[in-house]
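Blinded run. Sample ID left blank on purpose so nobody reads anything into the name before looking at the predicted structure. Input follows.
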Amino acid sequence: MFTFFKKYDLSGKTIIPFTTHEGSGLGSCVKDVKKVYPKANVQQGFSIYGHDVRTGKERVEKWLKKLGYQGK
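Blinded prediction complete.
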């Protein structure tokens, strides 16, 4: 993640953090993104357990809807 941050300037962009995990959730991801890109529009992040991915479609859709994105 930090190598990507050094290479790309996302200032002024909308960033929507999401990840799979096995217990750490988003960790410090959102804080790190906001620190590196203080001029970016960092939206509410989403994390899901890796073992829940296959059955997590509704959770993802609910999160995206909350952000104002409608699924097709």
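Unblinding after everyone has recorded impressions. DSSP finds three helices and four strands in the chain.
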